[in-house]
Amino acid sequence: MKSPGAKLGAVAAVLEEGLAEGVAPGLSAAVLHRGVLVHASVHGSARLEPRREELTPGHHFDVASLTKVMATATAAAVLIAERRLSLEDPVRRHLPSFAGAGRDRVTIRHLLAHSSGLPAWRPYYERVMADPVGRLAFQPREARPGSRLAEAFARGRALLEEAVLSEPLEAEPGTRAVYSDLGFLALGWALERAAGVPLGRLVRERVLEPLALASTFFVDEASEPGRVGGLGEREGRAFAATEQCVHRGEVNCGEVNDDNAWALGGVAGHAGLFSTARDVAALGSAWLDALRRRPGLLDPGVAAEFARRDPTPDGTRALGWDTPSPEGSSLGTRLGRGPGGAIGHLGFTGTSLWIDPDAEVVVALLTNRCHPSRENERIRAFRPRFHDAVAGALGIG
Questions:
Q1: CA nearest to 331, candidates 365, 308, 306, 307
Q2: Which of 206, 241, 274 finishes a domain?
Q3: Taking 60 as the threshold, does the pLDDT of residue 225 lie above it?
Q4: 22-47: per-residue pLDDT in tens?
Q5: Averaged over 280-292, what is the pLDDT?
Q6: Of 10, 70, 183, 286, which one has the fewest beta carbons inside 10 Å?
């Protein structure tokens, strides 16, 4: 990426306005236009409690559900291009216990399109907290028994996998679109079986390293310190804090905010990734290159299939990705208006990534809007205004 010091005045101004309005303690954005980094800036604080810490370009954000597209969907696209996975594979081919009561008809495509019939969410971490071994991972940091954490997270994995793969469907596969963390938990495990390696390693070796995304990683809490992809990923890095977690008795910082992902040790198909705005934009650029049929990590035909809106009734989802809603979108009113539309995704912690293939624009916005409380929802109104400011600064729309 070129122009590392580039800044669009109107974009910086709207980010400062968002900061003043209390959208989040800290905001970081990166914008690529035709492959050039035209904006990168950080604003505000990485954390407010227990002490204020200024946000810098080196701080890493918990990107929450951006994990679904940056890690899981991208890894799935790589495996599909290699014919190690098919969109039409029944999930039970890779996860044999996901069978019976209609589950036999659920495919990898259904999981990616959020049309499997699985519920949106379940508090499975509560089962882990109630387990004599699993609950050890939910102690405050200073009280966690380091010698037994791997055992606690292994127990969490067993409990969550059993729960997700036996969860009753709420609808026939392909008949409704409901955004489902459960579906992406199952998808992550299916990718592990198809690739023959753990999800964290698969994503690191097949997505992050080929794209040179050195500031994007899972922190595998169950691994040994110093191991690549393990706790060593946290050493020497700065993190933006998320919310005050009542279950772990601390402000989450450098540990995944999502409790179901935490119960698994921090590596999950639906959440767990940490990154910077520039890395998030670079991942988006890899998808843009494929959609523009340029050579790179992703097969253009597979990318086009993933970017096509799924026909499930009343849905706006593509495969892994979302598309702008006719009723109003976080993308705003000016981007994504060409024949190629747009693809994007949001994250609970206040993150987003949108790609406009016609205008060749990639926009990454990372915030810690849920620090110290998830009750702050000002990000909803801010996102469209921010993206309209980006489009205006670029003369689009």
A1: 365
A2: 274
A3: no
A4: 999 999 999 999 999 999 999 999 99
A5: 98
A6: 10
If asked whether residues 196 and 154 sit together in one domain, one would say: yes
CA angle 51, 5, 350 (to 5 degrees): 45
Question: ∠ CA(77), CA(367), CA(75), 5° rounding?
Answer: 10
Nearest CA among 114, 111, 69, 15 for reference residue 347: 69
Average pLDDT of the segment spanning 4-8: 77
Strands 53-54 and 26-33: unpaired
Answer whether 28's CB lies under 8 Å from 61's CB: yes
The angle at the Cα of 337, spanning 69 to 114, to the nearest 5 degrees, equals: 30
Contacts of 261 (CB under 8 A, 6+ apart): 267, 268, 270, 271, 272
Count of beta carbons in the 10 Å neighbourhood of residue 263:
28
Domain assignment of residue 209, yes or no: yes
Domain that holds residue 160: 66-274
pLDDT confidence of residue 163: 98
For 44-103, write each residue's pLDDT tens digit: 999 998 899 999 999 999 999 999 999 999 999 999 999 999 999 999 999 999 999 999
| Range 79-87, long-range pairs (CB < 8 A, 24+ positions) | 79/191, 79/194, 79/195, 79/206, 80/299, 80/302, 81/298, 81/299, 81/302, 84/194, 84/195, 85/190, 85/191, 85/194, 87/112, 87/305, 87/319
**pLDDT digits 0-9 by tens, 261-271:** 999 999 999 99
Whether residues 23 and 71 share a domain: the answer is no
Confidence tier at 222 by pLDDT (50, 70, 90): confident
User: Phi then psi for 227, rounded to 5 degrees?
Assistant: -75, 140
Hey, what are 171's tokens? Answer: 């609808």
Helix (H, G, I), strand (E, B) or coil at 121: coil
Residue closest to 81 by CA, chosen among 256, 312, 342, 305: 305
This prediction has a pTM of 0.96
Same domain? For 197 and 160 the reply is yes
